[in-house]
Amino acid sequence: MEGRVWKRPLTEVQKFEANEYVAACGESGVVYKFKCDAGDGVSGNVYVESNGVEGLQTRGEWVGGWGGHWQEADKSLGGYHACGTTHEADSDDDFLNGYYVPYWSDNVTKVIIWRGPYNNNVHCTTNLNQDSWETAKS
Q1: What single-letter DSSP state applies at residue 93?
Q2: What is the C-alpha separation between 100 and 123, in angstroms, rounded?
Q3: What is the mean pLDDT of the segment spanning 103-132?
Q4: pTM (two decimals)
Q5: Contact present, 93 and 117 (Cβ < 8 Å)
Q6: Nearest partner of 117 among 85, 77, 90, judged by Cα
Q7: DSSP string, 30-57
Q8: N or C terminus: fewer CB in 10 A for the chain?
């Protein structure tokens, strides 16, 4: 009969040392540069695409007949006039899809809206391709 021998369990710990840099936060820390140019200096109104329906809706409406639902209008941010400035906006800021409409006109232009670092101002660009915007590290 063989005898059993008890051995103390041993734990071996290895320290993890990364051997290459991996960015885990996507585009955080990137600054986007874009020109506030919607309307080319002509004053108008700006609306946020807020109801999920393609195209500008300035008034709500009943959709679906009997048993339907109320479709909200896109949210108005009020008057706007392009300042022509190239703004630097942090990539973590909110960029909203929306529309610019000049006063006394029915011409609707799609825009990207940035409301400033404190979310209290309106700046719009007609360059809808954010991937083409100039960038810099913050």
Answers
A1: S
A2: 11
A3: 92
A4: 0.71
A5: yes
A6: 90
A7: EEEEEE--TTTT--EEEEE--SS-SS--
A8: N
